[in-house]
Write a structure and sequence with these properties.
transmembrane helix, two-stranded parallel sheet, mainly alpha, membrane, transmembrane
C-alpha cells in the first residue's frame, strides 16, 4: 500500500467511529430503558453531523492524491474533531440536566424516579452548546487550514473559494454558542442543515449531475 492509501484507511476508520457513535446514541434513545422527551433540534444536528462526515470523507480522497507529511497532521486533527462533533451531537443515556439533584445530595434517579431524558433541555444547556458548537467551529477552521495547505502543496497556490462560506458557517455556529434563544437556534439550525446537505449532494453527485437531478 502507498502512503496515501494508509492515510485514507486511518481517516476512514475515524469517520466510521464517528458515524457509529451517532448510530449508537440514536439506538440508546429509542430503546425503552428510559422515557425520552423528543425535540427536533438535536436530531437535526445529528443529521447535519452525518452529512458533514460523509462530505468531508468524500472530499478527502482528492487531497490524499498529493498527500505529504506537511499536511497530514492538521488533516488528522480535523478528522478527530469531526469524530467529536458526531460524538457530542446526541446525549448519553445517563445525561441529566444541571441542577437535577434533589435536596440532601440525592439525585432523582437514586430515589427510584428517574426523570425523562429531555432533548430540548440537552440542546439548550450551556455545556452542550459550548462543547458541540465549539468543537464544530474548531473542525471547520482546522479543515479549512488543512485544505489550504493541501492546495498549496499540490497547486502552489491557495484555494480561496471555500473561505467565505466557511467563515459564514463559523459565525452562525458562534451565535449558537453565545445565545440560547429558541428562534435563533431554529433558523440557524435549518439553514446549516440545508447548506451542508446541498454541499454534500453536490460533492457526491457532482454539480453537473446534481443540476440534471433538479431538472436544471
Amino acid at each position: 500500500m502507498s502512503q496515501p492509501e494508509y492515510i485514507a484507511a486511518l481517516l476512514s476508520i475515524i469517520v466510521g467511529l464517528g458515524l457509529t457513535d451517532l448510530a449508537q446514541s440514536l439506538r440508546e434513545l429509542v430503546r425503552p430503558r428510559r422515557t425520552v422527551n423528543w425535540h427536533w433540534l438535536p436530531l437535526l444536528w445529528a443529521a447535519t453531523a452525518f452529512l458533514l462526515a460523509v462530505q468531508f470523507w468524500w472530499n478527502s480522497f482528492s487531497f490524499l492524491k498529493g498527500a505529504t507529511s506537511e499536511f497530514f497532521l492538521p488533516y488528522l486533527v480535523a478528522f478527530l474533531l469531526l469524530y467529536l462533533t458526531c460524538a457530542f451531537a446526541l446525549p448519553d443515556p445517563g445525561w441529566e440536566p444541571p441542577g437535577s439533584e434533589t435536596g440532601g445530595g440525592f439525585s432523582v434517579e437514586s430515589l427510584g424516579a428517574r426523570a425523562p431524558l429531555d432533548l430540548r433541555a440537552f440542546h439548550f444547556s450551556t455545556a452542550h452548546r459550548r462543547w458541540f458548537f465549539g468543537v464544530f467551529i474548531a473542525f471547520i477552521l482546522t479543515s479549512q487550514i488543512s485544505s489550504q495547505i493541501a492546495s498549496l502543496f499540490a497547486e502552489r497556490s491557495v484555494n480561496p473559494q471555500e473561505i467565505p462560506g466557511n467563515l459564514v458557517l463559523v459565525a452562525l455556529l458562534g451565535t449558537l454558542v453565545w445565545t440560547g434563544r429558541k428562534w435563533a437556534h431554529a433558523v440557524i439550525s435549518v439553514l446549516c442543515f440545508l447548506g451542508i446537505g446541498w454541499a454534500t449532494l453536490a460533492t457526491i453527485l457532482g454539480w453537473t449531475q446534481f443540476g440534471e437531478l433538479l431538472g436544471l
